[in-house]
Amino acid sequence: MNIINALENTIPISQFNRGLAGKIFSEVRQSGAKVVMKNNSPECVLLSPEEYVRLMDEVNDARLLLLAAQRMEQYDAESVIPADAVQSGLGITDAELDEMDEVEFE
C-alpha cells in the first residue's frame, strides 16, 4: 500500500462528530476500509460487510489449512483403518450407503 492510498483511507474521528458518518460509510462501501484516527493514533478500522466476510473467510481457511497440516504431520499410515472395516464394525452395508442422499462438503 502506498502513502497516498493510506492517506486517502484515513479519517479523523472528528468527522463523525461533524455529522459526516453517512459520507464516511459511503466511502467505506467504495474503498472497502477506512482507518479512524483519534489523537493521531489509529482507533479503529471500518470495513464494509463484504470485506469483513471476505477477511473472516480467509482467516477460517488459514485455520483449517493449519489444522490439516498439523494432522498430516501426525499421519501414520500403519494406524489407518480401511473404510470396509469401519462399515463392518458399524454394521453399515454398501446397499444402505447407495440408498442415502448425496452429502455436500465445503
Break the fold down into its secondary structure elements and pairings:
Elements: H1 3-8, E1 10-12, H2 14-17, H3 21-31, E2 33-38, E3 41-47, H4 49-73, H5 83-90, H6 94-99
Parallel strand pairs: 1-2
Antiparallel strand pairs: 2-3
The number of strands is 3
Backbone shape? elongated
User: Can you write the helix and strand succession as a string?
Assistant: HEHHEEHHH
Instruction: Write down the overall mean pLDDT.
Output: 89
Discrete helix count: 6
Into which percentage range does the β-strand content fall? 15-25%
What features would you describe in this structure?
It is built from six helices and three strands. The protein has 106 residues and is of the alpha+beta class. The model has no long low-confidence stretch (mean pLDDT 89). The longest helix has 25 residues. Helices cover 57% and strands 15% of the residues. It is elongated.
Summarize the structure.
The chain has 6 helices and 3 strands, in the order H-E-H-H-E-E-H-H-H.
Record keyword descriptors for this entry.
single chain; 106 residues; alpha+beta; three-stranded mixed sheet
